[in-house]
Specification:
The chain has a single domain, classed as Up-down Bundle (Four Helix Bundle (Hemerythrin (Met), subunit A)), CATH 1.20.120. Helices cover about 75% and strands about 5% of the residues. It is built from six helices and two strands; from the N terminus they run H-E-H-H-H-H-H-E. The structure holds heme C. Heme C binds next to helix 2, helix 5, helix 6 and strand 2. The site of heme C has 17 residues, from helix 2, helix 5, helix 6 and strand 2.
Length: about 140
């Protein structure tokens, strides 16, 4: 009896999520747990790098902006396993590549120009791509 009540409670608890899922029209990318962990780890690196860049911009510390932006550049993708690349749709890879290249450009410009206004406007453009990708794709787990 207790188990039935427990199951019912769990079911009710998940209704809002189930309904939210129905209205989520973003393209589904199916990934294994390990691949999903790699992608989400990269995402958290993006967020933490952004935090560093914003803090550095507020101090007008262009060396720190350069360093943090470079950390999010194309070099970050070097260790992405080939089978994960294959599991990602082309549009996703293209957007990801653009974002990494833009961080490399932010680093180059921050180093050579030392202009925080310019870096901030580049960062704004880059964030548009983060938003675009998040509006287009979601990750679902498959067991492999
Ligand atoms: C190429 C596509 C793409 C780009 C570009 C992208 N993301 Fe993501 N991000 C995703 C997807 C897909 C998820 C998982 C969303 C889901 O399943 O609902 C995600 C998840 C995240 C998460 C959650 C991580 C977690 O542990 O749950 C953070 C934080 C994040 N992204 C930050 C960023 C930031 C900041 C940028 C830009 C600098 C960025 N992302 C650029 C596709 C992208």
């Amino acid at each position: 009896m207790n188990r039935i009540i427990c199951l019912l409670l769990m079911w009710y608890a998940f209704i809002p999520f189930a309904n939210a899922g129905e209205t989520d029209a973003r393209t589904v990318i199916e990934l294994s747990p390990a691949h999903r962990a790699l992608v989400l780890n990269e995402m958290r690196q993006f967020l933490s790098g952004l935090q560093q860049i914003t803090a550095a911009l507020s101090r007008d510390d262009m060396d720190a902006v350069t360093q943090a932006a470079r950390g999010l550049g194309i070099a970050m993708t070097r260790d992405v396993p080939a089978d994960l690349k294959q599991a990602l749709p082309q549009g996703f890879r293209k957007l990801g590549h653009q974002v990494h290249s833009q961080f490399d450009q932010i680093a180059l410009d921050a180093e050579s120009l030392g202009d925080s206004d310019h870096a901030l406007s580049q960062l704004g453009n880059t964030l548009t791509q983060c938003v675009a990708c998040h509006n287009s794709y979601q990750i679902r787990l498959v067991n492999q």
